[in-house]
Amino acid sequence: MQAFPERWKISAPELIAETFSSRIWKVTREDSSPAIVKDLKPFDDVADELRGEHYLAWRRGEGAVRLLGRDGNRMLLEYAGDKLLSGHLAEHGDDAATAIAAEVMAKLFSRSQHPAPPDLQPLRERYVSLFRVAKADRNAGRHGLYVEAADIAERLLFDPRDVRPLHGDLHHDNILLGPRGWLAIDPKGAIGDPGFDAANMFYNPLDRDDLCLDPRRIAHMAEVFGRTLGQPPRAILDHAIAYGCLSAAWHREDKNAVDENRELAVAGAVRKVRLSF
């Protein structure tokens, strides 16, 4: 039987998910309420997860799950529920899901009286892979979407509209409905322009390219998230282009051409919509 710290006073662990980075256990607390234990494995990007832990501690449950306990690379987390925003989208439509994502975003960016964690990752560091791929393309005489996206990212980083702690990986499968409503899980813990946190939504759900490539949906998301963050839609679209090419660059570095090309296709669709704003 899996052993957890006695001070957590939890029982009945049930392994509900295992990924390359962690094992996820559903457990029962002393008051019979459910909770989650996230047990991190040793892997290259464990720093992302630990920054995310610090972000959750700082957020104190506003818009995100509460961090209830820590033990080395294990976290005891509030149970966020079992209904994903992607499931809500399938039942109630994309516009309803976008509205919920915007509400969660607004909560995540609400002001805190507590100082932000000092180890949050600056967005410039987050964008290293995009800059590396764009530089290789430039050196090879290719001046395509990677190079354009890197220029956009440089402009956004040079002149951010605001600088806040960021979730860093906000998408339809990281927003769940539970006892306290819709909450975000699995943050990466970054810091920079809030537009970055809207960007990944344009590329999700991953199995809905009919939505992700749809110009109407792209424009609608830009309008909704722009209102939420107090930014013009074109700024949100710029973040979406830069982020999509960053994601594609990660896939290129992993030699995953299928997902790289998928992200570039969506980024190209976002770029077309951006030209109309």
Write the topology of this structure.
Blueprint: E1 10-18, E2 22-29, E3 34-40, H1 46-59, E4 67-71, E5 74-78, E6 83-84, H2 85-92, H3 94-108, E7 121-122, H4 123-126, H5 128-139, H6 145-158, E8 164-166, E9 175-178, E10 181-184, E11 190-192, H7 195-199, H8 209-212, H9 215-229, H10 233-253, H11 257-274
Parallel strand pairs: 7-11
Antiparallel strand pairs: 1-2, 2-3, 3-5, 4-5, 6-9, 8-11, 9-10
Helix pairs in contact: 2-3, 3-9, 5-6, 5-10, 6-10, 9-10, 10-11
> What is the CATH first-level class name of the largest domain?
Alpha Beta
Structural class: alpha+beta
Question: What is the CATH superfamily of the largest domain?
Answer: Aminoglycoside phosphotransferase (APH), C-terminal lobe
Q: Would you tell me the overall average pLDDT?
A: 94
Terminal CA distance: 57 Å
The count of strands amounts to 11
Q: Which CATH architecture of the largest domain would you pick? A: Alpha-Beta Complex
Instruction: Give the radius of gyration.
Output: 19 Å
Q: Spatial order of the strands in the main sheet?
A: 1-2-3-5-4
Q: Proportion of β residues? A: 15-25%
**Helix count?**
11
Shape verdict: globular
Largest sheet composition: 5 strands, antiparallel
CATH fold label of the largest domain = Aminoglycoside 3'-phosphotransferase, Chain: A, domain 2
Helix content estimate: 40-55%
Uncertain segments: none
| Element-level helix/strand string | EEEHEEEHHEHHHEEEEHHHHH
